[in-house]
Design a protein that fits this description.
Strand order of the largest sheet: 6-7-10-11-15-16-17
GO biological process, one term: asparagine biosynthetic process
Distance between the termini: 32 Å
GO molecular function: asparagine synthase (glutamine-hydrolyzing) activity
Radius of gyration: 24 Å
Largest sheet: 7 strands, mixed
Number of domains: 2
Number of helices: 18
Helix content: 25-40%
Number of strands: 22
Low-confidence stretches: none
CATH superfamily of the largest domain: HUPs
Keywords: Amino-acid biosynthesis, Asparagine biosynthesis, Glutamine amidotransferase
Strand content: 15-25%
Organism: Pleomassaria siparia CBS 279.74
Oligomer: single chain
Domain Glutamine amidotransferase type-2: 2-203
Length: 561
């Protein structure tokens, strides 16, 4: 994982301010480096002279893959091209599949190859070839790539937006891109949309006009748009079949289990091999005790060496609105719903997976600590700015730290697993059952499509910024491209079986379990986690007690001052 910063200006080299630089270094404590590029003016017969440009790149690195720390920004002395890469290329279709070891240099080499003069017939074909390489990458990323040969600047986020990238323009039309920002100055940043790749033609710049952008849009796998330059998505449109709904079948459960196992295998192997740190565990799970995260923990037990511990980060908050009248021996943290559920699922894991060292990490956050970290959390989640954003960000921010407030030293685990995405793919929110009640499966399909399409805008960039401030990388096994393809291909009734309501006295798990995410519940059942399979869904801000900490009437959508 990396923190990346890039600016391009007509007037001077623009470097990150002190707060932004520190936030970038929090993301990448293993190395940092800067690079300046003077892009000379050129003369085009049709366009006239272009403008000299000043480009500044700064990157920090948290080394997670490979046997050596690969410093950034990556530079090529022969061409002058440069890459800032914040991502994990688990595989690159048609090239190295899967990618073994560090991926950043491999991605850079492939981009250089596709933009070299020996392969490119004209400048426009270099854009097409670059887009094809980026489309072939499977995994989360945000990047800035300067193609010095053809004078193009590329930037964007992966097809889901699993890594953060912010953007702002100055009054002089300067462009600044960064993984994270210090919003102390009040500058308004915006998230780069996860809807394609942006290209700037640096040969077509003037002193008065904004930079010339080209947007390369997404195209689903089965969409046909001849002769249109596009970023090919690795998954199809959602299956809209609603005829003859029945229970999820055994083959569906098996396929989901196999896809999730492959996703977790890529995300839990060969972690931190470049850094000689003696730790009992290399992976931790953001653990509420709910269905999604506990299934991840259960499969991790099958994948990781039996001598390796697995940490379960369970966060609970003191909420003065709820915990104001506690008895002398009552703990506000032990009363939090996620603490109760977490302990229950932890006990079930220990019973089903004997011999594994499970460490239940109690992260207790007093109200004074919440207040003390408020400004930092708000800066990290910016430009998101609602009460709900803050409530969710509090939970993720402290859960990522991985230690109690009274503990003097943080743990060395650098990879966190999150169950995010399961609700959006398999129908786990209350609004999904409401959509079905109002309009049947056709209404449910529309709601699921809406949730899936806005994942990057609503959740992922914010979560990446908040969690990564602890020098850790969050990975989302449910948002693996192969698993997403499976979920979108399945008929909706195979994922969330709302047409067949729950029968509490049935011995058939396909009827005994709740219809929300029934396919995932059946997988948990098959894995022996019968208590977890029956666990109800609870939003993180309510389970950890971060919602509505102050008295008064506030809504999640209320904008913060």
């Amino acid at each position: 994982m990396c923190g990346i910063f890039f600016s391009i200006s007509r007037h001077k080299y623009v470097v990150p301010d002190a707060g932004t630089k520190q936030a970038l270094q929090n993301r990448g404590p293993d190395s940092s480096g800067g690079y300046r590029i003077l892009i000379p003016a050129e003369h085009d017969r049709e366009q006239g002279p272009s403008l000299q440009l000043f480009a500044t790149a700064f990157s920090t690195v948290l080394s997670l893959r490979g046997t050596a720390v690969v410093k950034q920004p990556l530079q090529n002395d022969d061409t002058g091209s440069m890459l800032c890469w914040n991502g994990e290329a688990w595989s690159i279709q048609g090239h190295s599949d899967p990618v073994v070891g560090n991926d950043s240099q491999l991605v850079f080499d492939l981009l250089l190859q596709q933009t070299s003069s020996s392969l490119v017939l004209d400048r426009c074909s270099s854009v097409q070839r670059t887009a094809a390489i980026l489309s072939a990458i499977r995994g989360p990323y945000a990047f800035v790539f300067y193609d010095a040969i053809n004078q193009y600047l590329y930037y964007g986020r992966d097809c889901l937006g699993r890594r953060s990238l912010l953007r702002k323009f100055s009054l002089e039309h300067d462009l600044i891109l960064s993984s994270v920002c210090d919003n102390a100055t009040g500058d308004q940043w915006e998230e780069v949309e996860a809807d394609g790749i942006n290209v700037i033609d640096l040969k077509r710049t003037s002193s008065e006009e904004p930079l010339t952008f080209t947007h390369i849009p997404h195209r689903r796998r089965n969409e046909v748009k001849p002769n249109e330059l596009s970023f090919h998505l690795p998954f199809p449109a959602m299956n809209t079949t609603v005829e003859s709904p029945s229970h999820p079948e055994a083959q569906h459960v098996q396929k989901l289990g196999e896809a999730l196992r492959r996703s977790l295998e890529a995300r839990t192997q060969h972690v931190r091999e470049s850094v000689n740190v003696d730790t009992e565990a290399k992976v931790a799970i953001l653990f509420s005790g709910g269905l999604d995260c506990t299934v991840l923990a259960r499969i991790c037990h099958d994948l990781l060496p039996p001598t390796e511990a697995i940490h379960l980060h369970n966060v609970a908050f003191q909420n003065p609105r709820i915990h104001s009248n506690l008895g002398e021996n009552e703990s506000p943290y032990e009363l939090c719903p996620d603490r109760v559920t977490g302990r229950s699922s932890y006990a079930e894991l220990m019973r089903i997976c004997p011999g594994r060292q499970w460490r239940f990490v109690e992260i207790n956050v007093p109200y004074t600590a919440t207040v003390a970290h408020r400004s930092n959390v708000m800066a990290l989640m910016h430009p998101h700015n609602t009460e709900m954003d803050l409530s969710i960000s509090y939970a993720l921010y402290f859960a990522a730290r991985g230690y109690a407030m009274s503990q003097p030293h943080p743990e060395e685990i650098r990879v966190l697993l999150s169950g995010l995405g399961a609700d959006e793919l398999f129908g786990g929110y209350q609004r999904h059952s409401l959509a079905f009640a109002r309009r049947g499966y056709s209404g449910l399909i529309e709601e699921l499509e809406l949730d899936f399409n806005r994942l990057g805008k609503r959740n992922l960039g914010r979560d990446d910024r908040v969690i990564s401030n602890s020098g850790k990388e969050v990975r989302f096994p449910y948002l693996d491209e192969e698993l997403i393809s499976l979920a979108l291909d399945l008929p909706v009734w195979a994922k969330c079986d709302f047409a067949n309501s729950q029968m509490a006295d049935s011995e058939d798990p396909a009827r005994f379990l709740e219809p929300e995410k029934r396919l995932l519940r059946l997988l948990a059942w098959d894995l022996g986690m019968k208590g977890v399979a029956a666990e109800k869904k609870r939003a993180i801000q309510f389970g950890a007690r971060t919602a509505k900490m102050e008295a008064g009437r506030t809504k999640g959508t209320q904008v913060l001052s």
